[in-house]
Design brief:
The protein has helices at 23-39, 60-68, 88-102, 118-121, 129-143, 184-192, 210-222, 244-266, 273-279, 291-305, 321-351; strands at residues 2-7, 12-13, 20-21, 44-47, 75-78, 81-82, 106-111, 148-151, 160-164, 176-180, 197-201, 232-240, 287-289, 309-313. The protein is an alpha/beta fold and 352 residues long. Strands 1-4-5-7-10-11-12-14 form an eight-stranded parallel barrel, surrounded by nine helices. It has a two-stranded antiparallel sheet with strand order 2-3. Strands 8-9 form a two-stranded antiparallel ribbon. Strand 4 (44-47), helix 2 and strand 5 (75-78) form a beta-alpha-beta unit.
Length: 352
């Protein structure tokens, strides 16, 4: 089982201290965070792509390449690549380059995107939201098959006749995950293509999303794939500190500022501390607590989902960098080892 972190590189004003963090400072901090995550033994760090003033990461591959020179073991992933509005050839070349810089530690997590700013920015019609992704995903998968590339073209992509794609990844193919936000059709698409699933859970009771994993298994088997050979992940929000109270007090102000800001754009009602406190309970969507609470909640949901990977977004909104670094340290040195130990024991018992 893998454990990791992801973030979008939030910029803006810390709601607690009033201190402003701009893109230059935040990107420098991200490199430090990824280096620390590697040092404490976490398996993955992902950076999501956004094209908004409140996020510093519009080019995840570039930021990950900077971090690659400070790391030795951790996998570096997009979280996600908005493939619909990008060029699959360039995406593939960027992550193949990252793969060579890291000795084979790059991967792509592709999705349709929950934010739509990139579509008009790159001249795409939102009416093509799904067909853009489907066609470009097929093209990306074809690029992954080998050095020589031919493509018949389509509504959104040009024809390519027997061209070389360089550089090739270290192990010739890049790991490719599909990120979904709870749309059954997206789950079935990933399964039918035999691709691993990253399920984002940012609200509601996580256990309610468990049927999506079963749907992925069933659809994979129906398509002729071995469901046990395809990995599945849950990607969640949360924070860890020395105590649950400390974790909640650090995480809530920044998280609430982000959710309320985005909520005003999308018509969500504002959140409050009582709702947040309810969400960090054993069945809530937010994984917030001290080390023991975090271990218990991850293991409880592992029993429900049987996931192969658990990825948490702790840097939501702008918060003090030192507190975030401490959270990464605790997650890597005190939470991850206990989770791995317990999951390993479960797997050994199940195999007997």
């Amino acid at each position: 089982m893998e454990l990791g972190l992801y973030t979008f590189g939030d910029v803006g004003t810390d709601p607690v201290t009033g201190r402003h963090t701009g893109p230059a400072e935040r990107l420098t901090q991200l490199v430090e965070e990824i280096a620390l995550a590697d040092e404490v033994g976490l398996d993955l760090f992902g950076l999501g792509e956004h094209h908004r003033p409140d996020y510093a990461v519009s080019a995840p591959a570039v930021a990950l390449a900077a971090a690659s020179q400070r790391t030795k073991n951790i996998k570096l992933s997009s979280a996600v690549t908005v493939l619909s509005s990008d060029d699959p050839v360039r995406v593939y070349q960027q992550y193949a380059t990252l793969d060579n810089l890291t000795g084979g530690r790059a991967e792509i997590m592709a999705g349709r995107g929950s934010f739509i700013e990139s579509f008009p920015l790159f001249g795409h019609d939102l009416n093509d939201y799904d067909t853009l992704f489907a066609e470009k995903l097929s093209m990306l998968m074809k690029l992954n098959e080998g050095e020589r590339f031919s493509w018949p073209g389509g509504k959104h992509t040009p024809a390519v006749n027997d061209r070389g794609i360089y550089p090739r990844p270290v192990n010739d193919r890049l790991p490719l995950w599909i990120a979904v936000g709870g749309t059954p059709q997206s789950v079935v698409r990933a399964a039918t293509l035999g691709l691993p699933l990253a399920l984002a859970i940012i609200g509601g009771e996580p256990a309610r999303f468990a049927p999506f994993f079963e749907l992925h298994r069933q659809a994979a088997e129906k398509a002729g794939h071995d469901p046990s050979s395809i990995k599945r992940s849950i990607n969640v929000h949360g924070f860890v500190a020395e105590t649950k109270q400390q974790a909640a007090d650090i995480f809530y102000p920044a998280q609430a500022e982000v959710m309320n800001r985005i909520g005003r754009e999308r018509g969500w009602p504002p959140t409050n501390r009582a709702q947040f406190d309810a969400s960090i309970g054993p069945r809530g969507a937010n994984f917030v607590g001290g080390p023991s609470e975090m271990v218990d909640k991850i293991l409880a949901h592992h029993e429900i989902f049987g996931f192969d990977r658990f990825v948490i977004q702790m840097a939501i909104g702008v918060m003090e960098h030192a507190k975030l670094m401490k959270a990464i340290e605790i997650f890597g040195t005190r939470v991850a080892p206990e989770v791995r130990k317990a999951v390993g024991a479960r797997m050994s018992a199940a195999a007997e």
